Amino acid sequence: MASHNDFGKIAEDFAVEHLQRNGYKILARNYRFQRAEIDIISEIKNLIVIIEVKARSTDAFMLPQEAVTKTKIRSIVNAADHYLEEFNHVKEVRFDIISVLPDEKGKLVLEHIEDAFQAFDAN
Question: What pTM value is reported for the model?
């Protein structure tokens, strides 16, 4: 596995720990539908939260969350629709992004962006 894949896995694990510490129940990780993947599907209160984790080793070129394009949003929304139908969830849905970057000392810094985009942003 390439080192960027290792870093992505570490960032996802870090994001899951953050979510659990903050009361989120993890329903699924790396949920796949067709060619799409949802990094984390969670629940808090009466809300299903679909989370895209974006990790970068540096923000020199762009912030991690800036890599979530319209195409990526469309893919996430389609996979989320399938997940909700497959598991018969009828709760409200929110789409979040968790950005992970190392600081100057190499310690991971997490930014949880709630309600980062809406399903209609996919159009």
Answer: 0.88
Locate 70 and state its tokens: 């319209």
| Cα(94)–Cα(117) distance, integer angstroms | 8
Kindly list the domain boundaries of the chain, sorted by start residue: 3-65+75-122
Q: What is the pLDDT of residues 83-99, one digit of tens each?
A: 999 998 889 999 999 99
Per-residue model confidence as pLDDT tens digits over 32-67: 999 999 999 999 999 999 999 998 776 656 666 777
Domain 3-65+75-122: give its CATH architecture: 3-Layer(aba) Sandwich (3.40)
- For residue 55 the two structure tokens come to 């990790």
End-to-end Cα distance, the chain: 34
φ, ψ of residue 46 in degrees (nearest 5): -115, 40
- Helix (H) or strand (E) segment spanning residue 51: strand 47-55
Residue 97: CB partners within 8 Å, gap ≥ 6?
51, 52, 53, 54, 64, 65, 68, 113, 116, 117
